[in-house]
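Q: Here's a chain of 484 amino acids. Please give me its 3D structure as tokens.
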Amino acid sequence: MATGIWISLAAYFLLMLGIGVYAWRKSTSNSEEYMLGGRNLPPAVAALSAGASDMSGWLLLGLPGALFATGLTQSWIGIGLFVGAFVNWIVVAPRLRAQTEQYDNSLTIPGFLGNRFPSRARLLRIVSAIVIVVFFAVYTASGLVGGGKLFVSAFDGGYMSGVLLTLGIVLVYTVMGGFLAVSLTDFVQGCIMMLALVVMPIVILTTGQGDGVGAAAERLRSEVDPNFLSLTAGLTFAGWLSAVAWGLGYFGQPHIIVRFMAIRSVEEVPAARNIGMGWMAVSLIGAVSVGIFGRAYAVRNGLDIADPETIFIVLSNLLFHPLVTGFLYAALLAAIMSTVSSQLLVASSSLTEDIYHSLFKRDATDGELVMIGRIAVLAVGLVAVLIARDPESQVLGLVSNAWAGFGAAFGPLVILSLTWKRMNGAGAVAGLVVGAVTVGVWIMAGLSGVIYEIVPGFIAAWIAIVAVSLMTEDRGEYRELTTG
């Protein structure tokens, strides 16, 4: 492996570890700092942290791979995600920032739900914490699969070596620096990811062995599929709905919406939204371009891409100087690590705050809770390694299952708890359980190919919340709060 690649990667690793040390010294003195960074994130950090922790290796592996394999129809996923993210910033972000602080300074989503619905507080904390830990173990595994694939494709290394090295680096800075370390590394990683996704398509199209946009398009139509660049060819309504329905998942992703809770103030939410949506637009367009123009480059040069999800890795190695290749590999690791670290921290926060602190030791000291949080990060990471041990795992498949589980279980629950005064604790529990169970049953029944499981799960959870809340007593659990 070229020395330049290792120099770039070493610089990246040292930067991440340096941020971990800084955050450890700056913001780990109590549980609020370790879990939420003291609710003091600047808009740019909150925005890019939300985006980077959202997109994960899916942005550089899964989405380009799907477009490389089947064409532009796969971009509906990105369109649905963009719309969902925008609505999430409008509807959820300002309300969640205000209400989690005013409902007894809630530090986690299960904690907020327990404080919002005191009649079912204990049950909500337990069930929601279990759902978070289970689905995040699967979600984290998808990131580790991406790390393993990178080491196999780029370094001719062992798959499990890549999985363990990826987890090891993430564990160091997450365990040390908590939420602030995760958020600051996410900001840096988000910048690296966006830059890589701008540079890669330009080089693909302008290199001596590539095509311009027009020539690439013509090559794809003539040598791959006449409908390769069509947004609608062969797309059924169910297929279209399954793709755009990914946007529904945003409202229920704890590792994303927890960033809303940590922004410095409600007044700064619009600035964070504008930064975040700009970053997302550029990054999604770049990922789509990598997949589409990468296919044209592969056809022209006779490349045999055994796994479409490795197209970014293959092109990084072929088209760039080793120093730049190392930077692009760092971008991929950034995408993976930003999400893995966020998921590990949110899962550990739920185990610490909503299980250990709430159920077993209410008088635990801040130092004790921080220590338990660090142990929980390690435990969830090890479980994710067990799930990720199959090298044939598909990143997009694992992400889609976990994304649907969170979106259905928490999406309607979060929206209605923030906006509907009549909702009660019984309805909250019903929605949480019905959403999670519906997704699980849909997957096990093999119906995901009919329509994406988030659609029936989201609808069933919404109906359950409304129906049960209206059929049971209104306990007056909603407080009149300023939402900004």
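Q: Can you summarize the key feature?
A: The longest helix spans residues 159-206.
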